[in-house]
Design a protein that fits this description.
The protein is mostly helical. Helix content is 74%, strand content 0%.
Length: 84
Amino acid sequence: MDITALRKELGLSQEAFAPRVGLKSKGHVSTLERTGVASVRVALQIERLSGGRIKAADLNPDIALIERFRAEAANDDQSSAEAA
């Protein structure tokens, strides 16, 4: 699912969708739909609004980086526990 599909599924115009995800105008929504890149705040709101069908990490590289770091840290912790 992409952002445009989510917006249409919700029955919202770009103008109505903007405040639902923390944007100020339909122009910002248009850019978001075109690029698929969002601020951390907007990416997290879209993930919530989509019920997790659109992942915040897919919309924001900083979130993706944090998720990769956490996964690597969890793997390191598990490896350390198994070695002990």
